[in-house]
Design a protein that fits this description.
It is a single chain. By secondary structure, this protein is an alpha/beta fold. It contains eleven helices and 16 strands. It has helices at residues 28-34, 140-157, 161-164, 184-195, 211-218, 231-238, 251-258, 283-292, 305-321, 323-329, 339-344, and strands at 16-26, 53-61, 73-76, 79-80, 104-106, 110-111, 118-122, 126-129, 176-180, 199-204, 222-225, 243-246, 266-269, 296-299, 330-334, 351-355. The strands form three sheets. Strands 1, 2, 3, 7, 8, 15 and 16 form a seven-stranded mixed β-sheet that branches. Helix 2 (140-157) packs across helix 9 (305-321). The structure holds zinc ion. Zinc ion (ZN) is lined by residues 81-82, 84, 87, 89-90, 95, 98-100, 103. Zinc ion is lined by residues 81-82, 84, 87, 89-90, 95, 98-100, 103.
Length: 360
């Protein structure tokens, strides 16, 4: 991993947009790529520019661009279609559901990412972020994980007429939700659940006097420490759990949590576990509960345009309701030349952001 002299991108097509990067978030996927465990450079390139969580400002636009203007703040989507005409998902701009696996992802798979001063992309992959979200707009991309999950939760919970009653379509709504894990994806997910009226618990490894636990309590959710409370003890206190939103990537705790999912409950997997040994599972008991309790388990990978738009709307909602806590998720901004150390070292940040703006 090194800082390379990457060629300056320029406008080529009529619908191209040139942006200057402001903030690029760093996540576990970036660290895996930096360890060469994941990701691939573009064909013919000896390196990959990483970075897929971004906030940028538009500098210049092609002559047919209508969606953005110079000066706008934008977040650029990550995944690009596979290009196979037979892929029903990609041919409908839903590459997040790509069938072939030949999709590309900026900063991850086969395309350069955003950890560079300037980026060009087609306007259809960019979404405008309101100016008041300048400080927190880089959280849009990690928030799309929860947004896409909740769009799908709504789709399935429409089967329960009392849950759906009186709630606007497209915004999943239920009673009691548990978030597994207090990383950025989990904490942003907790906010998304809270604004939809879920009573929300966050179950995570940190002790109950950890700053993350205090953050959870400050936004109106409840923190339960896995260090002192078992899943069964938590479930006994909560009652029937309608939704479990997994954001740990740890298969063991996730499957143990399936044991405490309530009647008619939905379990969402969002984490990608590392390669670890097999875990033991009582498949018969699990199958019995799934059937007799109408339970649903699904996995989801971000994200389509609908989830990006929902994330921008929700981020504005979070910003109005919890300005301090939202800003606190970005624990520190780093200059670009510290990125290699940031990617390879241990981190105590909730969300670390590489800031191109501050470097001037
Ligand atoms: Zn496809």
């Amino acid at each position: 991993m090194k800082i390379v002299d990457h060629p300056e991108p320029r406008l080529e097509g009529d619908t191209d947009v040139l942006v200057e990067m402001l903030d690029v978030g760093v996540c576990g996927t970036d660290r895996e790529i930096a360890r060469f465990e994941y990701g691939s450079p573009p064909p013919g390139s000896p390196y990959l520019v990483i970075g897929h969580e971004s906030l940028a400002r538009v500098l210049d636009v092609g002559r047919a661009v209508t969606r953005v203007r110079p000066g706008d703040l934008v977040v650029t989507m990550v995944r690009r279609p596979c290009g196979h005409p037979e892929c029903r998902a990609c041919s409908r701009d839903r590459q997040d559901f790509c069938f072939t696996g030949d999709f590309t992802e900026r900063g991850i798979k086969g395309r350069h990412g955003f950890m560079t001063e300037r980026v060009v992309d087609d306007q259809r992959f960019m979404h405008v972020v309101p100016g008041q979200l300048r400080e927190v707009g880089v959280l849009v991309e990690p928030l799309t994980i929860a947004e896409k999950a909740l769009i799908q939760v709504w789709d399935v919970q429409e089967r329960l007429p009392w849950t759906a009653a009186g709630v606007a379509a497209g915004s999943g709504h239920g009673e009691k939700a548990v978030v597994l894990g207090a990383g950025p994806v989990g904490l942003l997910g907790a906010l998304a659940l809270l604004v939809r009226g879920f009573e929300t618990w966050v179950y995570s490894l940190e002790p109950s006097d950890d700053p993350k636990a205090r953050w959870v309590e400050a936004v109106g959710a409840r923190f339960v420490s896995a260090a002192s409370t078992t899943l069964a003890q938590m479930a006994e206190e909560i009652g029937s759990i309608d939704l479990i939103y997994e954001a740990t990537g740890a298969a063991g705790v996730a499957f143990r949590a399936l044991d405490v999912l309530g009647v008619n409950g939905v379990f969402v997997f969002t984490g990608v576990p590392g390669r670890k040994g097999p875990i033991e599972l009582d498949a018969g008991a699990l199958m019995r509960r799934l059937v007799l309790e109408n339970q649903l388990v699904f996995g989801t990978v971000n994200a389509g345009a609908d989830a990006f738009l929902a994330a921008i709307d929700d981020l504005a909602r979070f910003h109005a309701r919890w300005p301090q806590q939202l800003r606190a998720l970005i624990t520190r901004r780093y200059p670009p030349d510290t990125a290699p150390a940031l990617l390879s070292g241990a981190s105590s940040d909730i969300k670390a952001v590489v800031s191109f703006a501050e470097a001037g």
